[in-house]
Amino acid sequence: RRLAVAAASAAALPQSAAEALAAAATASRAALADGIVRQRVQVLMPVNQRAGPGQYCNTEALDYPCSASEEFRIALDAGKTLARSVSDGDEDLSVERIGDGGLDGDNAAVLYPTESRDRVTVVYPGADNLPLLKRYAEKTERPLTLLNPQWVTSGNLLSDFGVGPWRAANEKFVDGFELVFALEEVRIGSILPGESGLDGVQGAVFRLLRAYPDKVYSLYLMTGRDAKFVDEFAERPTYAQLEKILEDSKGKLRTSFYINEENREADEAAAAAGGEQLEGGAQEAAGAQEKGPGLGAEVVNLQALDVDSLEKTELRAYLKALGVPTAGKVAVLRGRLREAIDKRLSEE
């Protein structure tokens, strides 16, 4: 019952970059109305597997991700969209590069309305930019928003913020920025793609959503082009907590997912009638369309899978999900997949 209430009240998971930025702008405006002028926003950028129409919920990692400079170009466009959406105006924005890392280095930029200069958005700030950020923060009434900061605040023996009193001062400064919106992705386990749903694979892809004024994190399991609400947390769940969720689920989270609304409605009807939801066993959710498992196809029975009909991209996606090497010609991949399926079925 608690989860049902939480799911009903949870913020809707953005299905596109435009939706994510619109939600971030709404959260930012709400925070400004409450007098919060130092803000932090974390958004998944529409790059790599998330690039292109209808791909924002795609979680299957690409073999060759885009360069840091290309990602920053997209992030800069996102920063402009966010800044204009928050201000509800069409005033021209000035852009100042404060970090030029070239093709694969650190990049950062400052955005502000050309005439009024009444708010500042900093895109991809790093620890090296802290002195500049502190100068901007001296104007305490002016909104200052950090979009996707690049520093790491935990887990480092040598902090990005220095050591001793310098570290403490920098951490205190950064902690003064309220997290008003966060849409993050966490990959658990070693499989590529973690969203395949194969019972024997210990991995998954989660997305975390938090939007002001709510203080809770809503956790979603990504299942191809769908997402399943899992739970909400007062604090950001740790990697270990997410691992435990997967372990406790005994495969149910990975295989009880919805390909379309018809499947969802049928599952909910079965649960209401006291029946069981589709999960595990012979019907392994490895669905493959033109881009392979986890991208919104039907539930597939591995035993009945027609390996000869699969294209190279589909073969590689199945092999990745089964933890098998993906290099080689099509004929080699087909043979390798047959062997992997035979092994999986024999283990069952």
Explained architecture:
It holds the Pfam family DUF1995. This is SAP domain-containing protein. The protein has about 350 residues and is an alpha+beta fold. Among the domains are: about 5-180, no CATH class; about 280-345, no CATH class. Helices cover about 35% and strands about 20% of the residues. It contains ten helices and 13 strands. It has helices at about 1-10, 15-35, 70-85, 130-135, 165-175, 240-250, 250-255, 260-270, 310-320, 330-345, and strands at about 40, 95-100, 110-115, 120-125, 145, 180-190, 205-210, 215-225, 225-235, 285, 290, 290-295, 300. The strands form three sheets. A nine-stranded mixed beta sheet has the order 2-3-4-5-1-6-7-8-9. It has a two-stranded antiparallel sheet with strand order 10-13. The radius of gyration is 22 Å and the shape is elongated. The two termini are about 35 Å apart.
